[in-house]
Amino acid sequence: MIDLYFAPTPNGWKAAIMLEETGLDYRLNLMRLAEGDQFAPEFLKISPNAKMPAIVDHAPASAWGENPVSVFESGAILLYLADKTGVFAPPPEDLRGRKELMEWLFWQVGNQGPMGGQLSHFRNYAPEDERAYGFKRYLGEYDRNLGVLENRLDGRDYLLGAYSIADMLAFTWAFIAKPLGASLEDFPRVAEWRRRIKERPAVQRAIDLHKSDQNRGRHRADNNRVLFNQSASSLRQKSAPGKE
């Protein structure tokens, strides 16, 4: 059994897609981010960055020992699950394949994901009078990353040739291009790649999880200081209840 700490966001979908694709038995724990579940002391022990997704594997491979294994950060989670199951990633002995996997994994978590997240903030959650510059800046970066995907998909159906965790990681932020104010019109290979992945039954099940609990602009920077404008002090205060 694997515990999945989840909210219905692009990053949450990544872990859910991998669990659905592999058929691993998991228990979903919905994180109420606008209410501060991510700052609970017991969750910070699993995810010290106070972010979901995170997992706890209660039946790890024997090499890990008998104790449960916790993993935070979406890229690390998918790589852990790929190694656990032996699917959706080149094996460690395939040095070239593994090298390419790591390149696209680090590209996604260091470029596409953060740029998409910032674009989402300025499109949907920033105060109205502070949106324009940030939206223009991050829309440009988001489109630049779509261009990277478009080039990579020339002559390939998927980023590594075969469907892998690299595709799962990158798909979720391409999936929501329209709500971010972006378009795939100039990126036909990305649009076709997105369509192929979206049609997978496991992907559909994952992105439908708690669909009614998506934020959809209800909680914004100007009305929810728990979800936005966090600082180091929010971690200290939440992890040490009762202390000023």
TrEMBL record:
Residues 94-219 form the GST C-terminal domain. Residues 1-89 form the GST N-terminal domain. Belongs to the GST superfamily. Pfam families: GST_C, GST_N. This is GST-like protein. InterPro entries: Glutathione-S-Trfase_C-like, Glutathione-S-Trfase_C_sf, Glutathione_S-Trfase, Glutathione_S-Trfase_N, GST_C, Thioredoxin-like_sf. CDD domains: GST_N_Ure2p_like. SUPFAM superfamilies: GST C-terminal domain-like, Thioredoxin-like.
